[in-house]
Amino acid sequence: MPRSGLRALVAVLGVLALVAGCGSGDGGSGKGRRPAGADVTIRVPADAPTISAAVSLAHPGDLVLVAPGVYHESVRIGTADVTLRGESRDKVVIDGRLRQPNGVVVAAPRVAVENLTVENNTQNGVLVTGSAAAVAGSPGRTGGYDTGDEPVTFLKSFLVSYVTATRNGLYGIYAFSAQNGVIEHSYASGGADSGIYVGQCRPCRIVVRDNVAELNAVGYEGTNAGGEMYVVGNRLVGNRVGLTTDSDHQEKLGPQRGAVVAGNLIAANQQAATPEQADGGWGIGVGIDGGSDNEFTRNRITGNVTAGLVLTATADMPPDTNRITENTFASNGVDVGWTFPTATRGRGNCLRGNELRTTAPERLADVASCPASSASPSPSGTWAKPAAPGGIPFTDVAAPGAQPQFPHATTAGATTVPAVPALPDTTGVTVPPVSLLADGARVPVR
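The line above is the sequence of Plastocyanin; the predicted structure tokens follow.
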């Protein structure tokens, strides 16, 4: 079909859909039928005046391609197999103006969100979820969503790629009650809770790779997220806390267990010009808070003034059988600190083959070497911790610079999101070189 005819078809379908009241962006039932395989590109604003209007016209397999501009709207994608892509990552901006909770909400399977910026939302830049309560609800006291008696319902398969999420009041990119997805090549800053967050999934089958998170309260957080959960090759530098994996009663599917954190650069996480999270963490590279059966391997963890890696318990949920292997620690307040200030203690946690200088308690690498019996109690220590400075409003975080573009954004067709992503083989992952500590350097794509 000639391009002019295609645009005419889209325009006619748009009028019919809008007359039928389907302009909410939720993929309503008022769309006209289209022959199988007749996937189209719907351009904003050429074919539809807003992103939400374009999404409401989209059928499975369609691409919504957005021209440069600032779009003041919240986009909800409720049709499966749709790709939302900006022509320019830095110049296609969905700006919530602090008047809406979410910039983009993905509520259908196999949706791809690519090559755009999402900013100034009171909660999340991009929310991917199978939970109706999360879409409609308010965050809990410490972030996340308390969905009450709602059964766990997973959104199956998603992709967030080449997205910039900045200055959002909760999370930059948030996958909650979702499985089988990838968050990659993205940038998150100014997250008042976390830049990138994965919560309430088991098995997750989620890969978080080649992202940059800086100037957040926490760079990456995984809560009650485990089972084929991979955090690989990310740059988590200049936050208040680099990375946490934790258990929380506020979300379902606790306790957290079964994540792999490999080949990440986790450095200098004591940036004062950042939002302050409710728990007040600061100067920490990695925090394991009630998480169990996780593998932390071949990460470079350096220059975190409180600690490189902290292992502790969450309320009544201990951290058990975590393996800390072949990481490079340097210039941290203490490289590895295990601390259990209450009666709840971990068991079976161990270290092997790490490059490190200081631990609390002392000689931790000797007394808790891998392999360790799952019944062996983990020792506890204390160390000096610097006072955390006050944070700043998330709206005051520095604006990001230009970020890498999605290749061939204007000419590539819609992205096919697989039912299950290819999961990484981390045996070949290496410690990021020290040269990557330079400003702007990125961990090589795996």
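Note on the example: The chain has one domain: 123-437. The two ends are 40 Å apart (CA to CA).
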